[in-house]
Amino acid sequence: MKEENSICKICVGALIQDQTGEILLVKKGYGIFKDLWTLPEGYAKEQETPEQALIRELKEELGAEAKVGHLLGVRFRRTEEESTVYFIFKAMVLNLDGLKVDGQELVDFKLMSKEKALADEQTYSLVKFILSKKETGEAGEFAASDFRPTEIPATAEDYILYS
Fold first, then answer.
1. In whole angstroms, how far apart are CA 58 and each of 15, 41, 51, 119, 158?
2. How far apart are CA 125 and CA 86, in angstroms?
3. Structural domain boundaries, residue 102
4. Given pLDDT bands bounded at 50, 70 and 90, which one contains residue 7?
């Protein structure tokens, strides 16, 4: 009997900082993270690598010309509807002055200091975790963390963040 293979959607996100260290955060206009400050992110299309997907998503949603850096973390999430694997990269935007939201998926963006992002109640808990653990870290060993987001239901069986 042939077993079914698991199919996961690939998601990508970017921790982007300007030359002063402020972090670029965005607000979505839809979904479970609507009105929260989160990382710029999106889904990969078929045949795209995570890096290619991130460059495309940043261009489509913000008009950003980006360079992808090292990997900060990988998150696995399973819900009744789907399973996703989310790659979180450090990235650099070459045209920060020319950014604009697409008005559909994203409704706002801003550069925020690490301290302000950590203190803001509207900053997604995953962003806060990444900022507190991996803001300037180098690529290296990854291990499963005990992090669980506060905004969505998540258990150790259906949500794992490797950082």
1. 12, 7, 11, 25, 28
2. 15
3. 9-162
4. confident
